[in-house]
Design a protein that fits this description.
alpha/beta; five-stranded parallel beta sheet; 7 helices; about 30% helix; binds 6-chloroguanine
Length: about 240
């Protein structure tokens, strides 16, 4: 998978050199390039922003550097999926992570200030699939941290990136429920015990317990997820709750 990230703060993306993402890049599974938007400015101050049309606070990113950047990074027939970060975007979810993991090429445009001139998105939409994306209902200074989160969520779904593909199976959000709590030895620590069922060796009982814990946790922390579960995904023993 090819990933390009365009930002005015390339150093902000340096964590992508580390850990599992860094290893996936070294192994050639992910070909990631970070570009400085200021490369496509022509004035001495390398300015990328201007006052908002219509007035108001903050600054808006100018269309010109973005336009020339996209022209240069997308010169031919091959088109990336363009992801424009914005608190006004579509909410990023595990389902979208799966969708993006199936794309051959992702291009992230990091919005800063009060966002990017909307004509950049409107123009790019005639040449490629564009998605404005948000990572949650709060406001960040810019999209760089959002891109770190999205790239990490997507990269671990790319075949070969994760050592143990089984851990992708029953993790949080896959079945629409949060994961059950996890424990490791010692069996007792500071007066707290590992729930005995987990040490019983009875895999049926362990699965049942995990299912109940997942339902309880979801009911407490994310009741909105329980409401969205399809009727068929609760079995009759789940009604105990
Ligand atoms: Cl993608 N960008 C900004 N600036 N703030 C956000 C966000 C993105 N997602 C949540 N808050």
């Amino acid at each position: 998978m090819k990933i390009d990230v365009v930002t005015v703060f390339p150093e902000y993306l340096s964590p992508l050199d580390l850990s599992l993402i860094g290893r996936a890049r070294q192994r050639g599974l992910i070909d990631l390039d970070v570009h400085d938007l200021r490369r496509w400015t022509h004035d001495v101050h390398h300015s990328v922003d201007g006052a908002p049309a219509g007035g108001g606070a903050g600054m808006v990113m100018k269309p010109q550097p973005w336009g020339e950047c996209l022209d240069e990074l997308v010169p031919g027939e091959d088109r990336p999926r363009l992801l424009v970060t914005s608190p006004a975007g579509r909410p990023f979810t595990q389902a979208m992570a799966h969708e993006l993991a199936a794309e051959p090429w992702l291009l992230f445009a990091c919005g800063r200030y009060e966002g990017i001139d909307q004509r950049v998105v409107d123009h790019a939409s005639s040449r490629m699939e564009v998605t404005e994306v948000s990572i949650g209902d709060y406001v960040l200074f810019g999209g760089e941290v959002a891109v770190l989160a999205i790239v990490e969520a997507v990269a671990r779904l790319v075949p070969g990136v994760l050592g143990n593909a089984a851990s992708l199976d029953d993790e949080s959000h896959n079945a629409g429920l949060l994961e059950a709590p996890a424990y490791t030895r010692p069996a007792e620590w500071r007066g707290h015990e590992i729930p005995p069922v987990l040490l019983s060796g009875d895999h049926g009982k362990v699965d049942r317990w995990r299912r109940e814990q997942a339902l309880l946790r979801t009911a407490r922390a994310r009741p909105d997820l329980l409401e969205r579960l399809e009727a068929g995904s609760l079995d009759k023993r789940d009604r105990l709750l």
